[in-house]
Amino acid sequence: MDTRTIYELMIVANKLKFEELSEKLENFLIVANASWLKTHFSFVYHSIYKHNKFQNLEKFCNDIIAKHPSIIFESTEFTSLPESALVSILNRDDLQMKESEIWDYLIKWGTSRNPTLPEKLEEWSDENFTTLKTTVQQCLPLIRYFHVSSSDVMDKIKPYKKILDKQLWNDLKQYLLLPDRPVKSIILPPRLILTQELPARINEPFSTIINKEHTAIISSWIDYQPTSYSSRNNPYEFQLILRGSKDGFAPRTFWDICHGHANTIVITKVKGTNEIIGGFNPLAWDKAKIGDMDTNKSFIFSFKGGNIHNSILSRVQNSKYALFYSGLKDKWGPWFGNDEFIMSSKVSDFTKDKQNQCYSPIDNCYEESSDRFSIIDYEVFKVVKKSI
């Protein structure tokens, strides 16, 4: 029985009020099929709130959102998020977002539910503010107002002060001027930055695919160096953004997590050959854009069998077609050049249906590679200059 069938069986058991069976199936999915849940995150997340029963799955999803809030907040479905779901997310102390950004998204969510509100804020009446306040009233107490910078309070919160209780707004103004003076409003604690996870990762390898020697070679390609950097004098740090075996192998997951990140390296490990194939994109990945992207600094590469002494580098030849951002982001992930290096899947899983491609019809720089292949794992790193 495949995972999708188990999930549907859980839904049916819940509808028939077979609560014990439903809960067992729910826990089985979390323990044994976490990768599938991550791959089909959007479907699962909206489904559990539609049925409003699966508390364990809700926590599983909210744990992911807390670490990767862009999955929901930057998705096209954000404004259709049920109020109960938004409340559940905003309740999280470990939500990894600036409080002012959370406020912006709350206003976006509230105004989208009232399409008759004037587009220009200066045209709003008191009745319009009351309408918005009524819509977001369950979420307003969850904002950590006293941990918003003074500039953001004035630029972002003040224009909407009429949706706040007068006491809260007065206390907030006083706090900005006299932070040591007590206020009547409840001051919620700041969101927790997840630095406590770092010690557990110290002994973990930074990558499951490449090593420091690989990064040194790739860094030298970025800087157009005639000879490779050594692992000791590499001027760049490779910061992990995404790992398929951890975050999921769906194309949409790539776009949700990597959105907005520039200067990135995509690394794949080919199933069956252990060849490493990758590409460098100096531009920001943007899930809202569609079409060809122009840059003369991108390149693709391979390490045959993963061997650092058997590498192939192919720099972009036509900058106008250096990368392509597909409009079908549930099927296509990173796409370099004219089909030279593409990650894609018809079944929303890069490891499954051999739709990934590495082929160069012009210079045959990958003539020994499999034309189409599945992968064992893939990673995306942000390449950052080390501080001196």
UniProtKB/TrEMBL annotation:
Domain TLDc: 208-384
InterPro entries: BACK, TLDc_dom
PROSITE patterns: TLDC
Record-given protein name: TLDc domain-containing protein
UniProt source species: Diversispora epigaea
